[in-house]
Every structure is written in C-alpha cells, then in structure tokens.
C-alpha cells in the first residue's frame, strides 16, 4: 500500500498543490524555505494528526488564510482528508465519511519521520523512544491500542488515588489491575522488541556494516525484570505517595541501544547515529509492512545533513530492498545523487516558493 496522490490547500507556504507520487521512492529538491519540509509535514499530519515541528497547529495554517486542507489517496483509491480552521475546528474525512476523530487518521497510514533534529530527540530521553516503539506496536499488534487505552485509564485512576492519598479497598482494586495490565503490556512489548531487534540487525548490516555486530538493543519494561511489579510497588509506596504518581509500571518502559557497552549516542558520530536511526525506522516500517494492513511511509528531511556520499550509497542499497514508500528531501540533486536508482523506479520533484513540479528525465 502507498500514497498515490496528495492535495494540500493553505498548508504553511503551500497555497495549493496537487501531486501524484511514486509508490516507492520520491525525491524532492528545493532551496531553503521553498516548502520541502512543509510537504513532508502535511503527510506526517495525516498519519498523526499533529506536526513533527510544532505543537501549535495554528502555525500550519497559511498566514493569509483561516484554514488548511490536506488530503491523500492511496493506491486502493482510499481517501483521507483533514481540514483545520483558525477556531480550532477539525473536519476529518475518511472515504467521504466525516464522523471521525484525529486519532482515527493514525489507523490508516503509518508515517515515520527522520529530520536533522529527530535523532537528537530520540537519544535525548525516553519519551521519543516510547513513542517510536508504541507506533510500531500500535500497527503490528492489533490488540495493543485497546490494551494501551485500558491501561491508561487504570494508570489515571491509580495516580488519582496516590495524589489524593486514597488507600484501602479502592486503591487495592486499581493497584491490582495496574499490575495485571502492566505485565500484559510488558509481555506484548517484549515479543515485539524481539522482532524489531532481529529486523534491526538485518538493516544495520547494510547501513552500518562495520558496527552492526556490536550494537545491542536493551529493553527495560518499567520495573526490574527480576521482580514482581506488586513487590516493587509495595517497597516504594512511600515514595509514590510523596510524588503522587506511579513511578514504576508499563508506562515507564524504555529501549536503549549500546555499542560495546556504551550508549550509542556517546560513541557514534552524528552521521552514524543518523544511519542507526534510519536502520531502526526501516526495520519498524518493514514489520508494519509485513502485517499488510496499512502503508508504512518514511519521510527523510534533508538527507544531505550529516551523511557523506558513502553513507548515502549504503542508504541506496537499503532502499532497494525496502518494502515501504519513501519521501526524501534535499537542497539539490547532488545530495541525492547516490540515492537515485539506475532504473527509472522513482519520481523526482522540485519545490519553489510553495509550488511543486515533477521533474521528468532530462529536466
Ligand atoms: N503558516 C505559514 N504560512 C505561510 N508561510 C509559512 C508558514 N509557516 C512557515 N512558512 C514559510 O514557509 C516556507 C517553507 O518552509 P519549509 O520549512 O517548508 O522550507 P524548506 O524547503 O524545508 O527549507 P529548508 O531547506 O531551509 O529546511 C518558509 O519560508 C517559512 O517561513
């Protein structure tokens, strides 16, 4: 599955664009400020209901307009669209039907993004890593979104008890459910992480062949794997009361990546970290593809940043074997040169002042 066309109106500086994409590889060039990232952002918005650059959705509306519209069609002619106005109203349409919420968008396409900033965020703290793993789980393990939603409700109740110092039967009830849900989620996650780790290894061999053998993924479930959660919670009950929220449990999971016993962000160069993140993102996209439910899409903004020619050549080898649709931007074609396949199995676009045009061979 892939996105075959995109239409946007009044999204950032893209006043109106309508474009047909290649099912596998789309290469986009343009000067600084032309609108390349905005194009990727519009695709990201349809997969997440939010931006990867700002939490203020009103920033996405063109300065001279009071609303924006983004819509895509996939290769089955399935249509997703969203309109957002200045007053905060959303109108979400899926195949012509408009009884949907923002969260419904994410069920239809799995969009992952790599920008010059994302690897800093990714290695900066557990939040981004949790989001990343949860996106994969959400699409690959079909029971996961219900499980996670129910767990969140229990977590909120348990936190409310801790905050208001409710004890006795009411607390015990939520505490027990919290432990059950945490364990269930941890079991689902550990199985997924194992799959992800296997797939990651395959892509690291292509993207970071000299380092791949020594990179290891560590998963922590949110409490010591050697102990029962209930025992950990009992032991820390005073601390939890002091803080007024749950300090251990499935919401506190993390994944870390080591290279020869050190965190990779401390030993790998920026370019290597970026390649690592690409391997991880590709690995997850492939797992999503194997479920054959929705289109996995990877957006890579500014491929030239941090990556030298041999890194980009390695990426080209990975792309050849990849089962997902890619959108890659760069300032000019030089940065894309190693990635351009010999066969005409791609499309190339140029963005100028918010207008996108397809470049045909010889342009
Ligand atoms: N709400 C908005 N309305 C109109 N223009 C906007 C809005 N938000 C941002 N812009 C402008 O849109 C232009 C495109 O920005 P974008 O980040 O997409 O460029 P880019 O091609 O990715 O550039 P770079 O190569 O520097 O990353 C910029 O000039 C920016 O100032």
UniProtKB/TrEMBL annotation:
<keyword id="KW-0234">DNA repair</keyword>
<keyword id="KW-0742">SOS response</keyword>
<dbReference type="InterPro" id="IPR018078">
    <property type="entry name" value="DNA-binding_RecF_CS"/>
</dbReference>
<keyword id="KW-0235">DNA replication</keyword>
<keyword id="KW-0238">DNA-binding</keyword>
<keyword id="KW-0227">DNA damage</keyword>
<keyword id="KW-0067">ATP-binding</keyword>
<dbReference type="InterPro" id="IPR027417">
    <property type="entry name" value="P-loop_NTPase"/>
</dbReference>
<dbReference type="InterPro" id="IPR001238">
    <property type="entry name" value="DNA-binding_RecF"/>
</dbReference>
<keyword id="KW-0547">Nucleotide-binding</keyword>
<dbReference type="InterPro" id="IPR003395">
    <property type="entry name" value="RecF/RecN/SMC_N"/>
</dbReference>
<feature type="domain" description="RecF/RecN/SMC N-terminal">
    <location>
        <begin position="3"/>
        <end position="356"/>
    </location>
</feature>
<comment type="similarity">
    <text>Belongs to the RecF family.</text>
</comment>
<keyword id="KW-0963">Cytoplasm</keyword>
<protein>
    <recommendedName>
        <fullName>DNA replication and repair protein RecF</fullName>
    </recommendedName>
</protein>
<feature type="binding site">
    <location>
        <begin position="30"/>
        <end position="37"/>
    </location>
    <ligand>
        <name>ATP</name>
    </ligand>
</feature>
<dbReference type="InterPro" id="IPR042174">
    <property type="entry name" value="RecF_2"/>
</dbReference>
<comment type="function">
    <text>The RecF protein is involved in DNA metabolism; it is required for DNA replication and normal SOS inducibility. RecF binds preferentially to single-stranded, linear DNA. It also seems to bind ATP.</text>
</comment>
<dbReference type="Pfam" id="PF02463">
    <property type="entry name" value="SMC_N"/>
</dbReference>
